[in-house]
Amino acid sequence: MFINKEVFKASFLQRLEQTASVSFGNSTSRDQYHTLGLMVREYISTNWIASNEESRQGNHKKVYYLSIEFLLGRLLMSTLINLRIRDVVDEGLKDLGVELSDLEEAEADAGLGNGGLGRLAACFLDSMASLELPGHGYGIRYKHGLFEQKIIDGYQVELPEQWLRNGNVWEVRKADLAIEVPFWGDVKWVEQNGKLQFVHDHAETVLAVPFDIPVLGFNTDHVNTLRLWGAEPSKHYPLHKDFMQYKKETEQISEFLYPNDMSNDGKILRLKQQYFLVTASLKSIIRDFKKNHGDLYHFHEYVAIHINDTHPALAIPELMRILIDEEGMRWEEAWPIVTNTISYTNHTILSEALEKWSIDLFKPLFPRIYMIIEEINKRFCKELWDEYPGDWDRIEQMAIIAHGYVKMAHLSIVGSHSVNGVAKLHTEILKRREMSNFNEFYPYRFNNKTNGITHRRWLIQSNKGLADTISSAIGIGWITETEQMKKLLPFAADAAFQEEINQIKLNRKQELAALIHQRNNIVIDETSIFDVQIKRLHAYKRQLMNVLHIMHLYNRMKEDSSYRPHPRTFIFGAKAAPGYDFAKRVIKLIHSVAKIVNNDPLTKEYIKVVFLENYSVSLAEKIIPATNVSEQISTASKEASGTGNMKFMMNGAVTLGTLDGANVEIAELVGPENIFIFGLKANQVMQYERHGGYHSHDYYHNDRRIKQVVDQLTSGFFEDAYYDFEPIADSLLMENDQYFLLKDFASYQDSHERVAEAYADRKRWLEMSIHNIAQSGFFSSDRTVSEYAKDIWKIRPNR
Ligand SMILES: *Cc1c(COP(=O)(O)O)cnc(C)c1O
């Protein structure tokens, strides 16, 4: 049906009438999108079935990637590109007077994640399939993804997201493969064949129903699967309980994604979600395994299970439970199988974000799992005692269960064979500081895998013009081998190539300007510097520092009539966790500053501030190609890696950032002349945190610029928000500015000047931009996933 555009048009028209029951003339974009989606999924089916067969029969080792989040975004375009039928479809639809981009917009954005961690999982799926690696994702089919953000009078309001409202053409519900998941109840032991057996009694069971989504790679027949579990009432529901109550509690498990980016909340439900994901996934993995292999003694030779952060860490005790209680293994037999199967990625060193669960909550919910964790902890502490006799402090610090809590990171380290950080700096901090005790005890377990992004979505799909220009300069080899993008380096100073790059950026800026006009009713100057900070709103990411600097620019223009900078458009996009008061106030502040700056006749030609609401994957795809300056300004040591930084670099934006996360590696690759680095280094921040010595008051009193902007927060300068910003001012002064904004302010301001100066020199700027594109190949998630496959999972392509 996609052989050529005539065949495509004929089948499209026929299918449209069949599926939507409307004539073409009366059909909406949504009808058309739905029809096209169904056609594409049908087209994939043959390969999907073949891949599944091959995987069942073959004896290849496979990896299963467990993640509580998958921030997929839209799937239509990436699927068309991977199948290499985008052009046929595009031309066929054009003949019919339909724009493919309109159908693209009709697809809901699957936002089953909060931010970087969930987007990483989605990029990895794309890379695993493209590298023809047998790797499948397991997650939860949240009925409502991350909340939809509305801005009302400058304040964030959260609405439930509804991506499934019009169905999901990409998924297939597999009711026959559903799995029972038990909660609560109690543990009994019974004697069976002279052995003690544990049984979980009086449990409340819910049904986990798989919804499978095909995961295609670029230009390959290989198709992996993303299996998302939905919670439904079980036939074996607890008779003592009111059915409606039980149904409600059950469905809640896959109702909402937790919108809490860093810390944990909504405790019991969140914990239920974790066990639900883990149990259903393990049982399904083992069921498949048993079709080919008898017992589980060689499980780890054929199966790798990766846990994306600690949310799926219950896979460790659950696999122990299955091997011991169901397969009849001894502890000593089961434990090496578990640790050799499981590997773990750490995503944060913010101590408030390290997961821990109160035993009071945990134990009643999973009585048998809790027993197993106790045993793991007992044996681990014994090993510690043998190694460090008498060192109670160390044992207390490293224990899995301590002070009434289960520590999920400790469980994850002890129960896996590999622990990786997500950027060089982050891994070093884990090894040398935060987890140095564990690194000493398990010296070979820690390793680094610097994050990556799929260049197929973040360049080929979202910036076709740039991708085509790269191909015409250096050929198409870079598409499958992104390191070849370095071949662009000789073009960096080439005037003709610079002009092409300039034109592409300008086109994308015009498109974004049109979107901003349409959405925010703000007119922006397309030749201004597009300076962008889009990411979750968090104190450590320091959106506040960005806003304070904009306030300073404004003040300076008001005071000094000779100061008229190159026009700049500051663009923000960010969701704040619903309960995160500080973050929400910063959103309000951005709006209040925008209101003043954008409307003051003296400044509005020079500075515009734009907040684009409801930041999401599909919005990122529109903003990033239009960006000149990528703001990556986290307090050094706090951002594990960042992946936004990589997307911008690949699209020719120049980074203005601290030496944090993967910024360090970006700086190494492009060299100091092609990046703007400022501020404290990670070791300086950690030094202050340990030994003190930073007093934000000094910076407030000694730097007039700082005093002025901080005072404006509470002086009535913002007429629409008289008292809103007092807590922000307090965080900077009373609470001694935990994230070192005032400390870094001067060097941040100075870098902005350097940016403006560099931008004014068109040739120099374009040369910087091309350098960034050329060096971005390293950050393809194909590189990252290849490293995981080789070093951690020990899997090879299915060929
Ligand atoms: C890439 C991405 C992120 C992560 O951005 P960081 O700047 O690394 O925090 C978050 N949300 C969305 C929608 C993304 O595409």
TrEMBL record:
Cofactor list: pyridoxal 5'-phosphate
UniProt catalytic activity: [(1->4)-alpha-D-glucosyl](n) + phosphate = [(1->4)-alpha-D-glucosyl](n-1) + alpha-D-glucose 1-phosphate
One term under GO cellular component: cytoplasm
Entries under SUPFAM superfamilies matching the protein: UDP-Glycosyltransferase/glycogen phosphorylase
Residues recorded with modification N6-(pyridoxal phosphate)lysine: 647
Annotated GO biological process: glycogen catabolic process
Pfam family for this entry, one: Phosphorylase
Record CDD domains: GT35_Glycogen_Phosphorylase
Keywords: Carbohydrate metabolism, Glycosyltransferase, Pyridoxal phosphate, Transferase
Matching PROSITE patterns: PHOSPHORYLASE
One Gene Ontology term of the molecular function aspect: glycogen phosphorylase activity
EC number, as in UniProt: 2.4.1.1
Keyword Transferase recorded: yes
Functional summary from the UniProt entry: Allosteric enzyme that catalyzes the rate-limiting step in glycogen catabolism, the phosphorolytic cleavage of glycogen to produce glucose-1-phosphate, and plays a central role in maintaining cellular and organismal glucose homeostasis.
Similarity comment text for this entry: Belongs to the glycogen phosphorylase family.
Full protein name: Alpha-1,4 glucan phosphorylase
Species: Jeotgalibacillus soli
